[in-house]
Amino acid sequence: KGGEAPKTGKESAKRRALWKWACAETARQILSAPTFAPSARHEAALYGACAGDIRATLPACEGDWEASAWAYFRALLDARVDAAVDGGGGTTAPGPGPAAAVVAAASRLP
């Protein structure tokens, strides 16, 4: 039935992956448009934040360190949740991958 919650964790993980892909793709399409409204950067950032896509989120931060820190740590949280949902536990220190990249990038914040 259309409105039922998934019965298994595997189904939930698939739906989460689909949701994140759709948000990331929407953000990429907005940012890659040849011309866009001034508010489009913020719309792309919203979709990027939902997808954990730091590349789509950061342009809307406009150099504000607090907004940038929020964007990096939102992406880190999303990477940890993905690891937990995918069975990685999400409790260990970040290794090679998106979480490590976010931590490395956050360490370079002004």
Structure, explained:
The chain is mainly α and 110 residues long. The protein has helices at 9-32, 40-51, 54-57, 65-85, 98-106. Helix 1 packs antiparallel against helix 2 and helix 4 (65-85) runs antiparallel to helix 5 (98-106). The longest helix is centred in the N-terminal third of the chain and has 24 residues, at 9-32. The radius of gyration is 15 Å and the shape is flat. The model is unreliable at 90-96 (pLDDT under 50).
Keywords:
single chain; flat; about 110 residues; mainly alpha; 5 helices
State the end-to-end distance.
50 Å
- The average pLDDT value, as a whole number, equals 80
How helix-rich are the residues, as a percent range? 55-70%
Beta-strand share of residues: under 5%
Rounded Rg: 15 Å
Mass-distribution shape: flat
**Major sheet description:** none
Strand and helix order: HHHHH
Overall SS class = mainly alpha
Please mark out the parts with pLDDT under 50 across 5 or more consecutive residues, or reply none.
Answer: 90-96
Number of helices: 5
User: What is the β-strand count?
Assistant: 0
